[in-house]
Design the sequence.
């Protein structure tokens, strides 16, 4: 996805590392993207299409509306740091429109036009939306169950010798196996393909969560336990109020890794077994050579993934406010 | 200022304590037979060469580890494990980075479940951290972190305060302030204190009794009662005499 810059924030000082940079932009820069998008609109509207494409007028109107919105944003001073990106995006859309819709310079049907893509969203939004909801449901359930089970397993591994004795070998045997390898078996063993998908995603997200929770707890300074113990703390407090918060930064690393693994598992499961969701939609689109639909599904998928990652980052920032600094998403 | 009733400290009895650690195949004797009786309300300074087992001795008294041999009695009862009456303040502040200053100070209340917000406020202002209740530990200076650790140790009125070089990492001036503060708290509250220190002057300034230990395995070399009245001055001839005395026992006769 675009627009995600990685920078360090300083939580004590309010000064952002980029603070000084914005001011050095020439004042005309915020006024650039509006005209670019308006030019896109004009080209789309006036330059005849090379073939009979749908929705050309609507696309021109969308470009124009975006251009006007950007001009308003520039006038009200909202558009500053994002101006270069808005300009680049507008130029990109313009180039795409000219190259494909007006000049037809790339082979169809593999490469569609902007209006083809727009048409998919207009005519097929219902199915796309359903697929998205289905994917989200599958992912949310599998990932949540897997992560919680993973964290619980990690706590057990970190705090109990007996638990470690029995569970560690199992984890070593199953954990490194790519969950995909279990896919055929799972779909045979578990009659409900939805449940099978859940199980695989839980496995994919549970393993990294378990390992990183464990390693986080193993790395806790023993003095932290002593401090609480000398005040009379028992095992429960030591585990939940000392070990767990101390391991939290590591646990979040595991949660991020698990989320990535779940995305992969989700799409594969939907393509191969679960007959619904974005993965299935894409599979279907490919089968019917409906390439614009595939692109549309890709866009929705990317929005879903980045949205979920953003949510997880928000959660992390809330829970780990005490950390000096962290990666910003 | 807080107006808490002066709690009386507890008495300690250590009889023939021996302890050691196994590193790989080798067993290292760390405490080689220590017998020591401390009356309620005493302020004992423990001096000894580095690595001789001072921290280990404090851990044993706190009940974090059980001695291999010998018995430790607190108010006549055997020490079987840690107890909130006996608080150990570690060499490092070891504040929890995920808790604010206030949450760190009130740790023992979270453990016992007996919340008392007023007591937390009092102790925070006592150690001079008012206004920093909501700061995270990484935002504190070394001296402030040490004071927060002191507040955390004092919050539930321990009868015995075990201090492991509590001021070791502070700059000279903050150290003086904290020494005065410690002395005042001890006077006010009447707890028993056992403090490990490397600084003979600090011991002379604070303690009613100075115990020196030998190199590992630790044994008691000398046990000196300091009968001088408090507000002892560093250039008082009696203080200087005692200082030379103790340095000699620690094997530093020829050093100035
Ligand atoms: N958990 C442990 N395992 C093995 N050996 C240990 C352990 N704790 C302490 N020791 C050993 O016991 C000896 C005494 O350690 P201790 O920390 O009590 O010394 P100390 O007198 O406090 O030293 P210092 O003044 O430098 O703090 C050291 O030789 C140390 O290596
Ligand atoms: Mg020590």
Sequence:
């Amino acid at each position: 996805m675009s627009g995600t810059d990685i920078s360090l924030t300083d939580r004590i000082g309010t000064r952002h590392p980029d603070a000084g940079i914005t001011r050095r932009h020439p004042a005309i820069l915020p006024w650039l993207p509006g005209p670019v998008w308006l030019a896109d609109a004009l080209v789309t509207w006036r330059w005849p299409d090379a073939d009979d494409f749908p929705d050309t007028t609507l696309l021109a109107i969308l470009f124009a509306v975006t251009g006007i919105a950007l001009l308003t944003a520039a006038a009200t001073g909202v558009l500053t740091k994002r101006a270069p990106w808005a300009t680049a995006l507008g130029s990109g859309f313009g180039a795409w429109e000219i190259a494909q819709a007006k000049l037809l310079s790339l082979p169809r049907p593999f490469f569609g036009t902007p209006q083809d893509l727009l048409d998919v969203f207009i005519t097929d939004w219902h199915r796309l939306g359903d697929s998205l909801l289905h994917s989200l449901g599958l992912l949310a359930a599998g990932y949540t169950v897997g992560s919680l089970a993973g964290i619980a397993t990690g706590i057990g591994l970190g705090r109990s010798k007996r638990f470690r004795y029995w569970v560690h070998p199992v984890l070593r045997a199953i954990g490194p196996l790519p969950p995909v390898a279990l896919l055929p078996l799972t779909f045979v063993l578990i009659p409900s393909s939805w449940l099978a998908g859940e199980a695989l995603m839980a496995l994919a997200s549970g393993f990294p969560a378990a390992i990183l929770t464990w390693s986080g707890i193993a790395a806790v300074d023993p003095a932290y336990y002593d401090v609480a113990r000398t005040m009379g703390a028992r095992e429960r407090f030591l585990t939940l109020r000392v070990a767990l918060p101390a391991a939290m930064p590591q646990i979040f690393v595991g949660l991020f890794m698990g989320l990535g693994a779940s995305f992969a598992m989700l799409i594969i499961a939907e393509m191969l077994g679960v007959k619904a969701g974005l993965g299935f939609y894409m599979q279907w689109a490919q089968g019917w050579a409906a390439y614009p639909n595939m692109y549309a599904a890709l866009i929705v998928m990317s929005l879903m993934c980045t949205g979920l990652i953003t949510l997880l980052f928000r959660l992390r920032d809330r829970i780990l406010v005490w950390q000096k600094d962290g990666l910003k998403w | 200022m807080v107006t808490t009733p002066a709690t009386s400290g507890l008495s300690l009895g250590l009889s023939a304590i021996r302890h050691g650690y196994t590193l790989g195949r080798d067993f290292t004797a760390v405490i080689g037979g220590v017998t020591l009786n401390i009356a309620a309300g005493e302020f004992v300074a423990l001096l000894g060469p580095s690595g001789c087992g001072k921290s280990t001795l404090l851990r044993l008294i706190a009940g974090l580890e059980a001695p291999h041999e010998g018995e430790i009695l607190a108010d006549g009862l055997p020490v079987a494990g840690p107890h909130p009456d006996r608080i150990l303040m570690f060499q490092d502040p070891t504040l929890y980075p995920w808790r604010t200053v206030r949450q760190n100070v009130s740790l023992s209340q979270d453990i016992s479940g007996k919340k008392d917000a007023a007591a937390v406020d009092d102790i925070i202002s006592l150690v001079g951290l008012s206004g920093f209740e909501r700061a995270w530990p990484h935002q504190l200076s070394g001296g402030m972190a040490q004071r927060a650790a002191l507040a955390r140790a004092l919050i539930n009125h321990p009868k015995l305060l075990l201090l492991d070089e509590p001021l070791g990492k502070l700059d000279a001036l903050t150290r003086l302030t904290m020494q005065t503060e410690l002395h005042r708290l001890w006077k006010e509250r009447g707890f028993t204190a056992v403090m490990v220190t490397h600084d003979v002057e600090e011991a002379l300034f604070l303690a009613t009794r100075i115990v020196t230990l030998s190199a590992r395995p630790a044994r008691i070399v000398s046990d000196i009662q300091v009968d001088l009245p408090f507000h002892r001055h560093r250039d008082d001839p009696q203080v200087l005499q005692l200082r030379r005395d103790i340095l000699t026992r620690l094997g530093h006769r020829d050093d100035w």
